């Protein structure tokens, strides 16, 4: 007989249908059901359903069948089907952690049949063990009950089959007998798996690192043993004593997608010991101490009490800009703007109609001069005027040689698209000096305002890092912006880029294309640059390589094409924090002017950062095509760690002082491999800030 607890469980959660008539019948059952599951319940003709209640009943019916199919797939050890169901349905839809009529969960069956691949797949999806197994004795008693009742049912059916004459009822009894014989074998296998299992071995590769001045991070791997049962959770413990007496805290991890844990709320400067133990259905295994055995929460800034470089800078700049505006707000030049409507309030859908207004002042062709063009794109489409032209406005038709200083000034203005009207009025006051530079920059502001007004969009996007030029004296400053909204704009013409490229009739020769033709030919490259320049690095500590080259009017910096807003780099490790002890070691190495670590040394072989730097430097030298022996003359920048938020930090690798910046005409014997470009330093700084 079932225990009273199991009877209550059966009454409360009678979810599982009777067992299949045979193993083959079981396979057919859940596979046939699987074909039905692939049709989502929302695909039915809802008009044929009477009322919301029937729709909900149908939904629950299919989810119930998916739950039954998951149990069948686990029992039949069909890993592919288990993975398919976990991918197709959420854990809630599958009732992943609701016991069946036997008081079992899918994870219970997987671990007691020692099916590690299925158990891991279930654990990754958030599966848990049955809460009814509060002790080893309760699990053993429950398995014995299942085996005994299955055996009793087999004996009863066998007696009925033997004693009854052959008929339809007898045939049904034979099917039931085969199904219960199969279930009897399953329960015996589960019972044997439980009895032969042992507690897990200790986790392996338990590594402790300093995550911040108040936290530590521990990472580890599964136990090496393959004979014990599947591990279903881990316990992380920490203490100020190597004997863990008294313990300070512990955390149980039952979400095993990533085997790492961050211990928060620790005291800076205090040593903490950490250990990790694993758990399976037989209980907790022995703990494994971390390597190193203890760590002290800290940050490199604690070495000399340095404040973050950017602390308060943004607020200070906003305050300074506010002060400048306050001084100018009572100027006569600002009076006309008080009654002007705010163009930033224009909606994109309304303002884009200006593209097709007869009075539009977009240019069709270029003559000798300086121009502004704005490229708006969405997926593989680009925004064009009613004449299938990329929007272009004139800046100055007498300006045939764009000075780098003017271009860099324009890129800085792109950080203040919302303040163009105010900047125009400020420059107007100063224009009395008749400075050619001020006149050019005032015309730039006028062109920006014209483009914003015609498009009805304030934000024109990011400035491409270099203007497009041709031999006819045309210069195009290009801005790029991706439109991510799904809104459909009225009267707006989005044209596929490939169609625009093939349909445009060039008025220039292939040998001497105009700036517009050059822009259209290279538009995909510019869009790719724009998208890549907005990508962020994953969290971690990186080793960056600083290489500059100078020209007459600018300094350029070497960057990778795949991430042009970041220096050439390789990842050192996933933990971005440099501890105080690690920074002290770096300072010591810099003070004695030791070469960068490219070869192992006996006294530093136990320093994890030293070993990580060795690997990173070799990888970086290969990346930028510099022989490893040359790296001995390189040095690590020891003034600070470059922090980009809380999740990304950089150590800089510098060439010898004479080679940091290549002068004009100077040969660089080590040319980087393909996949790199050089950006003007100011452009790079703007991109890095973004």
TrEMBL record:
Q: Which GO terms describe its biological process?
A: establishment of mitotic spindle orientation; regulation of establishment of bipolar cell polarity
Q: Name one GO cellular component term.
A: spindle
Top-level taxonomy = Eukaryota, Metazoa, Chordata, Craniata, Vertebrata
Transmembrane residues, as ranges?
Answer: none
Do you know which CDD domains this protein is assigned to?
FN3
Ranges for domain Fibronectin type-III come to 202-299
Underlying gene: Ankfn1_1
Q: Where is this region: Disordered?
A: 1-25
Q: Report which superkingdom the organism of origin falls in.
A: Eukaryota
- InterPro entries, per the entry: ANKFN1, Ankyrin_rpt-contain_sf, FN3_dom, FN3_sf, Ig-like_fold
Q: What is this protein called?
A: ANKF1 protein
């Amino acid at each position: 007989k079932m225990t009273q607890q199991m009877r209550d469980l059966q009454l409360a959660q009678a979810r599982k249908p009777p067992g299949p008539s045979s193993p083959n019948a079981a396979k057919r059952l859940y596979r046939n059901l699987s074909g039905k599951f692939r049709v989502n319940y929302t695909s039915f003709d809802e008009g044929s359903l009477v009322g919301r209640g029937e729709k909900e009943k149908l939904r629950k019916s299919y989810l119930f069948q998916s739950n039954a199919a998951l149990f069948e797939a686990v029992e039949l050890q069909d890993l592919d089907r288990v993975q398919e169901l976990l991918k197709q349905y959420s854990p809630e839809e599958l009732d992943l952690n609701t016991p069946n009529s036997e008081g079992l969960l899918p994870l219970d069956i997987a671990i007691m049949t020692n099916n590690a691949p299925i158990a891991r797949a279930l654990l990754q999806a958030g599966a848990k063990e049955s809460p009814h197994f509060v002790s080893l004795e309760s699990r053993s008693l429950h398995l014995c009950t299942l085996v005994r009742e299955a055996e009793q049912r087999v004996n009863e059916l066998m007696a009925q089959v033997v004693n009854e004459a052959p008929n339809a009822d007898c045939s049904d009894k034979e099917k039931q007998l085969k199904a219960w014989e199969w279930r009897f074998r399953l329960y015996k296998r589960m019972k044997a798996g439980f009895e032969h299992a042992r507690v897990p071995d200790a986790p392996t590769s338990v590594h402790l690192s300093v995550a911040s001045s108040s936290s530590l991070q521990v990472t580890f791997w599964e136990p090496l043993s393959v004979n014990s049962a599947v591990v279903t959770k881990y316990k992380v413990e920490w203490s100020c004593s190597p004997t863990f007496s008294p313990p300070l805290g512990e955390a149980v991890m039952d979400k095993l997608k990533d085997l790492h844990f961050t211990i928060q709320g620790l005291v800076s400067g205090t040593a903490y010991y950490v250990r990790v133990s694993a758990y399976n259905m037989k209980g907790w295994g022995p703990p494994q101490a971390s390597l190193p055995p203890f760590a002290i929460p800290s940050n490199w800034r604690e070495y000399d009490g340095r404040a973050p470089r950017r602390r308060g800078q943004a607020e200070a700049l906003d305050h300074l800009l506010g002060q400048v505006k306050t001084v100018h707000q009572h100027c006569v030049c600002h009076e006309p703007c008080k009654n002007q409507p705010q163009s930033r309030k224009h909606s994109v859908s309304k303002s884009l109609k200006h593209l097709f207004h007869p009075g539009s002042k977009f240019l069709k062709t270029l003559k000798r001069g300086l121009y502004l063009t704005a490229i708006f794109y969405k997926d593989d489409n680009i925004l064009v005027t009613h004449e299938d032209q990329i929007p272009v406005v004139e800046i100055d038709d007498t300006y045939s040689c764009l000075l780098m200083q003017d271009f860099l000034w324009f890129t800085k203005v792109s950080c203040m698209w919302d303040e163009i009207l105010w900047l125009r009025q400020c420059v107007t006051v100063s224009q009395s000096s008749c400075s050619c530079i001020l006149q050019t920059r005032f015309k730039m502001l006028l062109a920006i305002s014209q483009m914003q007004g015609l498009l009805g969009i304030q934000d024109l996007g990011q400035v491409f890092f270099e203007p497009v030029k041709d031999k006819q004296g045309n210069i195009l400053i290009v801005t790029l912006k991706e439109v991510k909204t799904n809104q459909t704009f009225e009267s707006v013409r989005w044209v596929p880029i490939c169609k625009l490229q093939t349909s445009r009739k060039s008025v220039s020769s292939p040998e001497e294309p105009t700036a517009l033709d050059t822009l259209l030919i290279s538009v995909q490259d510019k869009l790719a640059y724009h998208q890549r320049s907005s990508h962020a690095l994953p969290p971690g500590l990186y080793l960056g390589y600083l290489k500059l080259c100078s020209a007459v009017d600018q300094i350029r910096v070497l960057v990778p094409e795949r991430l042009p807003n970041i220096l050439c780099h390789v990842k050192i490790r996933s933990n971005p924090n440099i501890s105080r002890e690690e920074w002290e070691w770096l300072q010591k190495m810099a003070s004695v002017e030791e070469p960068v670590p490219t070869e192992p040394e006996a006294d530093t072989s136990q320093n994890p950062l030293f070993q990580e730097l060795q690997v990173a430097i070799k990888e970086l030298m290969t990346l930028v095509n510099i022989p490893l022996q040359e790296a001995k003359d390189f040095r690590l920048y020891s003034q600070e760690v470059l922090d980009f938020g809380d999740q990304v930090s950089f150590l800089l690798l510098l060439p010898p002082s004479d080679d940091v910046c290549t002068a004009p005409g100077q040969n660089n014997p080590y040319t980087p491999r393909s996949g790199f470009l050089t950006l003007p330093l100011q452009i790079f700084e703007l991109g890095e800030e973004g």
